[in-house]
């Protein structure tokens, strides 16, 4: 047989605050205040005992106000507490009772002037609040809801008399997104009740996450569990949910923390452990939204809560209210009068009975039980978020009423027994004062409403630390302050957070796949959420210096990627230096060949009167040796750091000096030809053989090259230049030739002189040997042409200092070819065969 539980908490006063929210004694449902009307329940109701604290918070607030000398002096604040039982019909009925005379259910009739209903506090859920507002809005009675959030602002605007003792839920959702981004969690699961509130929560959160780059691995909508639920279907649903949690790569699970959701989640975890579906603890990071108080039903008292170790909750900001814990500690059925809840709470909490309630029970209540001995999931001594909201709501009504009395003091009248009452106060007149009310509560927090009739406050970030005896500790590790400027609205202290034991206190990872390390970029997987991706290496010349970058970035021009392509390294500035082995080798070669040339010049000067030196114009020989000496010294302009002067001189000096050398060779070749032609009797060529012709050839040929170089310097001169692109890891310091066309014209002119000298020498190669240098000049020009023909493609195919080295090698090789082919045979005769160096011998050889 079912029995009736008449629960009542009632206090008379000059003005009365009505209290109602979702149920204190539901059947497998969430709870808050209980009330006077009787309700049919089974013999063993399932109860959320923790919500008894909400009753105590209201009683404590009213007690403080009535004892406060400056708030509503000489006015007694009273209250009625009713229960909605999370039922629309009962909610409407109990709302009408608030509007009826005491102990009479006659709506719209209330002749009790001593108990004036001034406002209503409730309910715990948004549905209950809206059910109440349907009736209360008709009378414009202020209603302060302390329960769950409502995201849709249009729903709030339908009820202008409804105030919310919590901030907008969207702030909390943005805070959760900030929390996930802070810890780089982008792959999360969502759990919510399968109802309108749960669906609104999911839609809002998914929208916020998509804007923040966070993906949802799975969504679990579990149905509400009640007395008529099929236990087999419920168990099957719990096992399926546990398997999803077990196999998902998402280590972070966000739970819509309504009591019904937390009730089901606790049973999901308990069922999974009981069925041994996992070999080790599940090990997840639970992020619980809404005003969750981590409450357990009585039948869950022995359930292990260790799986929630390290959970993170985001309740509305609270502070410890002075004196509340002492007030709660003093509650005891033996001394507390007028509390219709305490006996039933005591029996449920301590699993005992009073003689008048159950004579057959084996365990009797001793009255010595202590509330502080109860585990946290059943009852907490410190004020929870909901209780704090109720506490602030009572004070908001009291301060509003006080402000109205102060502003309209002339209407006050004295009634019997010294009571002070404003007979003209109507509840609808409180709105103008309530919307502007602002005060500091006893905990030091500011209480006021914003333009949307929501409490202007923020959220705490709480880390839950559980213990083996099923008690737990809330550790504040951060806060969300929507009123603060962007960048300062989210604060968290990582070092204070304790993670689930399975993570060994290492920051958990919750990703669809491993991070793409620096040097790689994310590449989206077809058909997968954007948080699931492959990792591709950066293209050559680009880097990524952070995890999970979507694009690689180019290094600055003076830097290049390292081997891992995760940072840019400063390029080395290179040029053909005297300190390089290559530079040292070319410098040595240049100086060595210069010394050899000086030695040959000295030999020729010393033996200048000998026939072999005099042969074929001695002055041309000296001019050629001096020009070759300068050719060997030219490479010194190419070695070392390029500067403006060296860039201007090196190509032009090389071109002019080489043109002089080749002009000398050409002059010597032409004179050889003319000399043999002039030996014929009566030849008109005799008058052309002489110094004038030689000087004319040298001057005219050199002048052309000089003109080319002058035009080059005037139009587009060479200049120092940094080549940033030819080599990925080097900056080449070089001389930009200015006009490449002028460079190749100058080089081509040298080629023209060389080919012309080669042709003339080739034609004169069969003249008598004694006075004929043509054969040696032919070989020298052949070497010269071969060197410079191979120079052009080699020069074009190299970069940097190696390109300079190729040009230096060509200068030295071609100059050495001239020196060796023309002068070594004569040095051989002068030094090793001096007997051949006389006129008779030379003349004798000629007659052979």
Outline:
The protein is built from 22 helices and 29 strands. Strand 28 and strand 29 form a beta hairpin.
Walk me through this protein's architecture:
The protein has 848 residues and is an alpha/beta fold. The chain folds into four domains: 3-168 and 318-448, 3-Layer(aba) Sandwich (Rossmann fold), CATH 3.40.50; 169-317 and 458-503, Rossmann fold; 520-570, no CATH class; 581-846, Rhodopsin 7-helix transmembrane proteins (Rhopdopsin 7-helix transmembrane proteins). 41% of the residues lie in helices and 14% in strands. It has 22 helices and 29 strands. The strands form nine sheets. The chain has an eight-stranded mixed beta sheet, with helices on both faces. Helix 2 runs parallel beside helix 3 (126-139). The longest helix is centred in the C-terminal third of the chain and has 35 residues, at 644-678. The model is unreliable at 1-7, 21-45 and 410-422 (pLDDT under 50).
Tally of discrete structural domains = 4
Q: Count of DSSP E strands?
A: 29
Helix content: 40-55%
Please state the second-level CATH architecture of the largest domain. 3-Layer(aba) Sandwich
Task: Please give the structural blueprint.
Elements: E1 3-4, E2 10-11, E3 15-21, E4 40-41, H1 52-67, E5 77-83, H2 88-98, E6 116-121, H3 126-139, E7 143-145, H4 153-157, E8 162-164, H5 169-182, E9 187-193, H6 196-212, E10 215-222, H7 231-247, E11 252-255, H8 259-274, E12 285-288, E13 312-313, H9 324-329, H10 342-350, H11 385-407, E14 413-414, E15 420-421, H12 431-434, E16 438-440, E17 446-448, E18 459-466, E19 472-480, E20 490-492, E21 520-524, E22 533-537, E23 542-543, E24 553-554, E25 559-561, E26 568-570, E27 572-574, H13 581-606, H14 611-614, H15 618-633, H16 635-638, H17 644-678, H18 691-715, E28 719-723, E29 730-736, H19 740-763, H20 774-797, H21 801-832, H22 839-846
Parallel strand pairs: 3-5, 3-6, 6-7, 7-8, 9-10, 9-11, 11-12, 12-13, 27-29
Antiparallel strand pairs: 1-4, 2-5, 13-18, 14-15, 16-17, 18-19, 19-20, 21-22, 23-24, 25-26, 28-29
Helix pairs in contact: 1-11, 2-3, 5-6, 7-8, 13-15, 13-21, 15-17, 15-21, 17-18, 17-19, 18-19, 19-20, 20-21
């Amino acid at each position: 047989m079912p029995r009736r539980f008449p629960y009542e908490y009632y206090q008379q006063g000059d003005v009365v605050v009505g209290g109602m929210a979702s149920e204190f004694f539901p059947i497998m449902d969430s709870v808050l205040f209980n009330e006077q009307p009787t309700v049919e329940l089974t013999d063993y109701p399932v109860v959320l005992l923790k919500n008894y604290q909400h009753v105590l918070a209201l009683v404590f607030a009213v007690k403080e106000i009535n004892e406060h000398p400056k708030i509503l002096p000489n006015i007694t604040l009273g209250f009625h507490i009713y229960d909605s039982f999370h039922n629309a019909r009962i909610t409407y009925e109990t709302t009408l009772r608030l509007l009826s005379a005491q102990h009479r259910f006659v709506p719209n009739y209330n002749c009790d002037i001593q108990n004036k209903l001034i406002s209503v506090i409730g309910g715990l859920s948004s549905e209950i609040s809206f059910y109440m507002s349907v009736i209360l809005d008709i009378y414009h009675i202020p209603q302060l809801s302390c329960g769950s959030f409502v995201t849709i602002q249009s729903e709030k605007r339908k009820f202008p008399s409804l105030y919310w003792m919590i901030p907008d839920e969207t702030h909390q959702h943005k805070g959760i997104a900030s929390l996930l981004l802070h810890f780089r969690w982008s792959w999360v699961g969502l759990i919510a009740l399968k109802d309108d509130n749960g669906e609104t929560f999911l839609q809002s959160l998914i929208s916020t996450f998509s804007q923040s780059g966070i993906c949802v691995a799975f969504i679990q909508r579990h149905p509400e569990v009640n007395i008529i639920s099929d236990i087999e279907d419920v168990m099957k649903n719990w096992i399926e949910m546990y398997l999803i949690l077990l196999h998902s790569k998402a280590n972070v699970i966000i739970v819509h923390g309504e009591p019904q959701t937390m009730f089901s989640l606790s049973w999901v975890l308990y069922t999974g452990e009981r069925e041994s579906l996992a070999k080790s603890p599940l090990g997840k990071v639970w992020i619980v939204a809404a005003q969750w108080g981590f409450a357990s039903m009585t039948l869950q008292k022995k359930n292990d809560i260790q799986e929630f170790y390290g959970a993170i909750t985001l309740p509305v900001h609270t502070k410890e209210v002075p004196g509340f814990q002492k007030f709660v500690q003093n509650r005891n059925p033996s001394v507390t009068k007028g509390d219709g809840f305490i006996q039933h709470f005591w029996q449920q909490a301590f699993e005992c009975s009073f003689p008048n309630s159950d004579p057959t029970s084996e365990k009797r209540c001793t009255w010595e039980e202590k509330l502080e001995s109860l585990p946290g999931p059943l009852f907490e001594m410190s004020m929870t978020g909901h209780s704090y909201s109720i506490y602030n709501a009572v004070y908001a009504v009291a301060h509003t009423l006080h402000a109205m009395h102060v502003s309209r003091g002339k209407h006050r009248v004295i009634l019997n027994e010294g009571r002070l009452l404003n007979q003209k106060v109507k509840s609808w007149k409180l709105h103008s004062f309530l919307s502007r009310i602002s005060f500091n509560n006893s905990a030091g927090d500011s209480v006021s409403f914003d333009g949307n009739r929501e409490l202007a406050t923020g959220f705490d970030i709480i880390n839950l630390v559980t213990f083996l005896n099923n008690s737990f500790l809330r550790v504040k590790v951060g806060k969300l302050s929507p009123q603060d400027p962007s960048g300062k609205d989210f604060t968290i202290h990582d070092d204070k957070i304790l993670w689930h034991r399975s993570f060994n206190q290492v920051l958990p990872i919750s990703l669809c796949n491993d991070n793409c390390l620096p040097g790689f970029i994310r590449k989206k997987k077809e058909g997968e959420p954007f948080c699931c991706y492959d990792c591709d290496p950066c293209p050559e010349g680009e880097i990524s210096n952070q995890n999970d970058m979507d694009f690689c970035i180019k290094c600055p021009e003076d830097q290049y990627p390292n081997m891992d392509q995760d940072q840019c390294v400063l390029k080395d500035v290179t040029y053909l230096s005297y300190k390089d082995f290559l530079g040292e080798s070319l410098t040595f070669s240049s100086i060595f060949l210069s010394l050899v040339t000086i030695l040959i010049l000295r030999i020729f000067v010393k033996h200048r009167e000998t026939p072999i030196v005099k042969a074929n114009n001695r002055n041309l020989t000296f001019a050629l040796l001096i020009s070759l000496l300068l050719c060997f010294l030219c490479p010194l302009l190419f070695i070392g750091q390029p500067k403006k002067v060296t860039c201007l001189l090196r190509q032009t000096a090389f071109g002019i000096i080489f043109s002089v050398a080749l002009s000398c060779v050409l002059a010597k070749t032409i004179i050889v030809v003319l000399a043999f032609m002039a030996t014929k009797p009566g030849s008109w060529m005799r008058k052309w053989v002489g110094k004038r012709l030689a000087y004319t050839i040298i001057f005219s040929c050199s002048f052309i090259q000089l003109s080319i170089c002058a035009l080059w310097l005037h139009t587009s001169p060479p200049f120092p230049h940094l080549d940033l692109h030819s080599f990925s890891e080097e900056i080449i310091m070089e001389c930009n030739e200015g006009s490449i066309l002028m460079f190749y014209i100058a080089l081509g002119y040298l080629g023209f002189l060389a080919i012309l000298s080669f042709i003339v020498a080739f034609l004169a190669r069969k003249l008598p040997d004694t006075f004929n240098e043509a054969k040696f000049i032919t070989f020298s020009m052949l070497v010269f042409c071969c060197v410079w023909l191979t120079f052009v493609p080699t020069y074009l195919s190299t970069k940097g200092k190696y390109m300079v080295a190729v040009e230096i090698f060509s200068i030295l090789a071609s100059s050495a070819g001239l020196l060796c082919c023309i002068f070594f045979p004569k040095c051989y005769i002068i030094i090793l065969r001096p007997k051949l160096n006389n006129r008779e011998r030379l003349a004798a050889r000629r007659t052979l």
